[in-house]
Amino acid sequence: MRRVATKLVLYFALISIGYAYLYPLLYMFTTSFMTVEDLVNPTVSWIPTRLTMENFIRSWNVLEGSKTLLNSVYLSAIPSILQALVTALIAYGLSRFNFPFKSLMLFLILATFLIPTQVTIVTKYMLFSRLRLVGTPLVSFLPAVTGQGIRSAIFILLYYNFFNMLPKTFDEAAELDGANSFQIFYKIILPLSMPAIVTTFIFSLVWYWNETLLTGMLLGNEIKTLPLALRDFAARFALMFPAADGSAVNRINEGIRMSATLMTILPLLITYLVLQRQFVESLERTGITGE
Amino acid sequence: MKLQKATRRALMGYVYTLPWVIGFIVFTAYPFFYSLYLSFFDLDFTVFGIRSTFAGLKHYLYAFRVDANFPIQFWNTVLSIALSTPLILIFSLVAAILLNNRLKARAFFRLLYFLPVVIISGPVISELIVNDAARIVDPRGYFIYSFFTALPDTISYPFVYMFNNLVLILWFSGVQIIFFLAGLQKINASIYEAAKIDGASSWIIFWKMTLPLIKPFILVSAIYTIVDLASFSNNPVNTSITQRMFDVDKPYSYSAALSWIYFVFVMIIIGITFLLLRPREETK
Predict the structure, then answer these.
(1) What's this model's pTM, rounded to 2 decimal places?
(2) Is there a single domain that holds both residue B218 and residue B143?
(3) A93:B16 CB<8 A
């Protein structure tokens, strides 16, 4: 009897927390389909009386969806691939070779994680503008290729832990067969490290997609990603649909804003639902939680 | 001449880590120290290029004495980091303990609690807040809220803050929940059984066993939380740093000074956290 009671309390707690998590998403979802009449109607709170796609069409145009979506895709996919490969190489060097100042390097890698983005944002902007790279995708490719991408430190340490758990006997056997260290990395270590690679890639993907503080500054107005377009959404909407004539049709409303938000996160939501196992379980499998 | 094997391997180690060393110098160390340098200087854009003149602590003093907005934004941000971090840690530990039970829908709940990590970004959060999507219940309607607001401000502030920022606290907890969950699963189930046989209640088991064993995870989660919150693009401080970059009378250097003030305080918060949660030397 007591067991059943605790189970019930447990489920109740989990469901209420779950509701708190889901609420913003549900709200976003239903509001996106609402017409202006439904939005102002106090008797309509969740279920729209009439489904409309009007909001989506409008906000897609204001977001310049086809352009910004493409920008978002390549500006998060390419740095993520680079990051997943480069941090693996760096971690391989740290894990399999002994050299002077190695522990200093590990310490510095840890330290870079603690430096918040905004400390270097001013000087990074100056650096890239002196190199005439502001507004080009290179501003996120170059740091990624040198292991200084978004949260690279976490990924280096993740690979480092992971490689340390792989038995060294494989390497030794391959070395006796005449393989050089890069061949060992490429032919033996990498195939064994799929969980770590997947984790690094998908988390980089998500973090690159959602990053707006630094990329917003460095990309300027030349390249807009979806989240950056969402950031300027209200201003752009007012520009495209002047509400000077006082008609309610041209006024921005929650339905339009929520549909824009929904479209910004939709690619991520789909990715998450498709790769759900990789997202949650890979974190545990890669030993990120280890010492 | 053939190099010693150890030397050769050391060299190979440098080859693999070279990209990081270059990147660290160019994209991290140089911007980091240059922004410190810049915060003590005035920049002038002349036809001959950028001229810098030493300004001493001018920008730092300006930030606190003349600037009307910065001190408010700054203390609000620091306070919200200091308040959110313990709330996030407590919540994610509780959620992890709940999820650690044998449940049917465990995978589903875990999936749900982790979801915000995937979709959270500055603009999305602002849209949700602007459109009232982040307010689940209006706390002002409840008795407990008015009870807390009736208390003196200094006492009630943390509670009122918690009610007003409930969704943000939940949404920033995803990684920490998974992290604690992994930590809990590492604890050997047999020691729980042993404690139960000895007659310990689950309350005592939590305080005397689970908490000490999970302590290293708490420290790492705490640091992760602070860094995560501090770098979030909606922070008033972060927005003001980016907005002030092109101020005509004090380009770049004022922002650099602001970012260093902020950085120092974030480091102080991390330092205090470390002191509170540091691994104590066990007596053997």
Answers:
(1) 0.87
(2) yes
(3) yes
